[in-house]
Design a protein that fits this description.
Blueprint lengths: L1 H29 L11 H22 L1 H6 L3 E5 L10 E4 L2 E4 L13 E5 L6 E6 L8
Antiparallel strand pairs: 1-4, 2-3, 4-5
Helix pairs in contact: 1-2
């Protein structure tokens, strides 16, 4: 949970910094204090970066704070392959899950029951599922 909160604070700080830079560059444009003609396009570039970063990182994490505090997670069982496991991401089909790489080390070929947040797909809990043979 601390890993998620740290990433939320970091994405909020980056979004805030980009917003402050955007406001500053707009103020420079409005006051016509640009020294180079190309610097008139700085607000356009900062707006694109700000919107992209905010929509991809910050908003999903902000939306997941309520389910995180209420412990209302989505539960699913996955079996990752070696190509699906990366440094801090785990791919399952067309979805990408994020996890704390210092807390869990998933292995290929094993089944895991994961609990994750619905919007940013941050894994809160990962439990290995033991294979049991059915005896009749």
């Amino acid at each position: 949970m601390w890993y998620f909160l740290l990433s939320l604070v970091l994405s909020l700080a980056i979004s805030g910094t980009l917003l402050a830079g955007l406001i500053r560059s707009l103020k420079i444009n409005w006051e016509r204090k640009n020294h180079r003609p190309i610097s008139y396009l700085t607000p356009v570039l900062l707006t694109l970066v700000f919107l992209g970063l905010t929509l991809i990182l910050t908003v999903p994490r902000l939306l997941d704070t309520v389910p995180l505090l209420a412990a209302d997670y989505v539960i699913e069982e996955i079996s990752p392959e070696q190509s699906d496991i990366n440094w801090s991401t785990l791919n399952s089909g067309s979805r990408r899950f994020f996890f704390n790489q210092w807390q869990w080390q998933p292995e290929a070929g094993k089944s895991y029951r994961i609990s994750y947040t619905p919007h940013s797909r941050y894994i809160v809990e990962m439990i290995e599922v033991a294979e049991t043979a059915a005896v009749r």
